Amino acid sequence: MDRLGWWRDAKFGMFIHWGLYAIPAGIWKGKEIEGIGEWIMRRAQIPVKEYEQLAKQFNPVKFSAEEWVRIAKEAGMKYIVITAKHHDGFAMYDSKVSDYDIVDATPFERDPMKDLAEACQREGIKLCFYYSQAQDWHHLDGAGNDWDYDEEKKDFAKYFEEKAKPQVRELLTQYGPIGIIWFDTPVTITPEQSRELADLVHKLQPECLVNSRVGHNAGDYQSAGDNQIPTCVRECPWETPATMNDTWGYKVNDHNWKSVGTLLRLLVDIVSKGGNYLLNVGPTAEGVIPQPSVERLKAIGSWLRINGEAIYGALPSPYLLELEWGAITRKPGKLYLHIFDWAERELVLYGLKNKVKKAYLLADEKCSFLKVIQEYNKELEYDVLKILIPESAPDENVSVIVLEIDGDPEIDRMIIQRASGKVVLEGCVADIHRSSIDSPINIGFSGIVEN
Ligand code: FHN
């Protein structure tokens, strides 16, 4: 079964980190706590008895599932992954497994996941749940809390059977079709337990995906490291979870927002390498997605309304390596050149062997032809394509040129000197010759040589 079909085409999803940690928002007892907001309980070593008091204050009266789904949809996002339970152990949905949940322990007394499931159904967005299957800082037997509980005395198998599995079951039986169960930090989990979780998900909802962080290669696709992007095209299905500032869960003092240009280039870069971009928002304790996130998402949505053809359902670049001026995506018979730096009147592409039939700007409704000069350079021994481009870019961040070509792209993959004079040797296209079997050189997922 190809359960990955919709996800491969989707390319762009919204990650939502929302939980009790949005109340302290990075500050505990007047002190700024370093690091990502949702880790405040562990970073400040807050005792369970104190942290759980936050539930009594959690009343997100401004929460509107319609609004959140509208923001995601207008941004051009096709799926939403929301924290059903993060490492703090608090269920953000109505769980019968434990009373430590939003319906039983907060004055809000409502299940926001029900509203989200309905709004997503209506708007054609796939709802997916994040679930921390091993770390649970609230539970006696969960992993990660060594300041309240004795690590030696923990019975993780008990936790797994009595909380993790039953909660995953609830998530897959209470909210209609779910796109992904997005597991995270497998830490103490055994290969059998990872397999059991993946099987449980697939048994309850055969179409539902499981990400690789379920552990031990039991997932349907690869989650890259947080904010990590490989340096070249990866053939396996993969996704980068990423922040818009420096935190996942809301932090009142984190204003380090990436610009729209940066976010757009990251989206394009990821898609050109065959991945999906799961971009995070961290709503406040009142249930509001911070305005800087909303503004950025709006701008990305506007760009996608014009250039979405080059993103949704697009295949990765036929060039394995990064290009200096931007990135390429493709569809049958078409190459999309995403230009980040529109400096010259002429864009040069090396190594493309196919004949270019037409070139035009994706933003140009009339598809007016751009002049191209295509020749084989005998001295350099490769094909050179010159595209004459207008003086000003149609978009200040990323402008897309469509090349219509004959047949599947054929690329001369020889290593060439770039216009800047650089010659880049990427780990992912290298053959490793070890000096001895003991020299532990690996190429990591990101394409960087590690040892
Ligand atoms: O520990 C978590 C972190 O809080 C956050 O949820 C990210 C999102 O990918 N995952 C873990 C760290 O990789």
Structural class: alpha/beta
Bound small-molecule species: ligand FHN
Give me the number of helical elements. Answer: 10
Integer average pLDDT:
94
Helix content: 10-25%
N- to C-terminal distance: 37 Å
Largest sheet: 8 strands, parallel
Number of strands: 19
Please list the strands of the largest sheet in the order they lie side by side: 7-6-5-4-1-10-9-8
Low-confidence stretches: none
H/E series, N to C? HEEEHHHEHHEHEHEEEHEHEEEEEEEEE
Estimate what percentage of residues fall within beta strands: 15-25%
Q: What radius of gyration results from the CA coordinates?
A: 24 Å
Structure description:
This protein has 451 residues and is α/β, with parallel strands linked by helices. 23% of the residues lie in helices and 20% in strands. It has helices at residues 5-10, 40-43, 48-51, 65-74, 102-105, 112-123, 156-173, 191-204, 260-272, 291-307; strands spanning 12-16, 27-28, 31-32, 79-85, 126-132, 180-184, 209-210, 222-223, 238-242, 275-281, 326-331, 334-339, 346-350, 356-361, 372-377, 382-388, 399-405, 442-443, 449-450. The protein has an eight-stranded parallel sheet. It has a four-stranded antiparallel sheet with strand order 11-12-17-14, with helices on one face. Helix 7 (156-173) packs parallel to helix 8. Ligand FHN is lined by residues 36, 38-39, 184-185, 226, 241, 248. The site of ligand FHN has 8 residues, from loops.
